[in-house]
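Notes, p. 3: input format for complexes.
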Amino acid sequence: MSDIRCIGIATGGGDAPGLNAVIRAATKAAILKYKWKVIGIPDGFDGLIWPEKSFELTLDKVSGILPRGGTILGTTNRGNPFKYKTEENGKEVTRDISDQVIANAAKLGIDAIITIGGDGSQKIGLELFQKGVKIVGVPKTIDNDLSATELTFGFDTAIHTVTDAIDKIHTTAASHHRVFVIEVMGRDCGWIALAAGIAGGAHVILIPEIPFSIKAICESIAEREKLGKHFTIVVVAEGIKLPQELKQMSRGWPVGNTIGDAIGLFSNKEVRVSVLGHIQRGGSPSPYDRVLATRFGVAAVDLLAEGAFGKMVALRAASIVAVDIARAIGHLKTVDPDGELVSTARAVGIGFGD
Ligand code: F6P
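Output follows (354 residues plus 6-O-phosphono-beta-D-fructofuranose):
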């Protein structure tokens, strides 16, 4: 057992539905189960760079936040205390201010910290742990691409949002006999595109893990035409790697525009592009995400109580387990092109442009 009396909670990186559910669960478990005090650290680690920004999380403060999207603590994808960018004499310089951050945590009376975040935030947590800070991590990303955990909260909500969007686009695509390109998030991996594409009845899904050609996509569209299906839904993960032929005609970000342009050019069909963007990160977490986030939050507090520092909670075989942060970070969980989910999609006629 550890001798903790006060913990800090920080959320870092891009937000995801369910962050508030973790904050609430960890705060409640810390106060109700262990009688600890809880400090909310705003905007990643900024609340430890400027400790006056940090504030106590009471039961009242976390009341009513379970269904809310975003994070009441705020977040940032900058603010790494080991590589802190600041301006000195009109020039941008990078400094290691981790000692200051650690000293400020001690000044606030914080004995241990829960870092809720993706790979980048967990890496910062690991480096702080290596400097003696008592850290436990909670993984987060709507992309669901962390290999240490089978699922991250936020993913289920995101695929609900995307599926709903595909359903809505389906009817307008069918009515106008158009091809619709729907670009979804997934910087490195195609999980959102694949899951929501299957759930939404997409006809073609493009993901970073499967090389594709415009020719193959246009063939899928032509085959549908022959069957009297005069519309096609193409779901595109933002992280796809453009084939050489398309690199020249790329309009840059968002990549969905390039795919739309190319299909329009080679298929003789009217094409529209819809980039879903950050609506995928917003909204109220789904019941599944609320439950997973609550389990993660409570498990993180239990790990701190056990003195299991330097660990991250994870979901494996339906159970919450603890993994070493050091082993958890830096490994992407990519879609297996020969895996069951892709072959299931192929079996129901979904093309991958290959
Ligand atoms: O990693 C999660 C993610 O949503 C990616 O899918 C996306 O590329 C990125 O974050 C967007 O980040 P930002 O909010 O900084 O634009």
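The chain has two domains: 6-153+285-316, 158-280+337-347.
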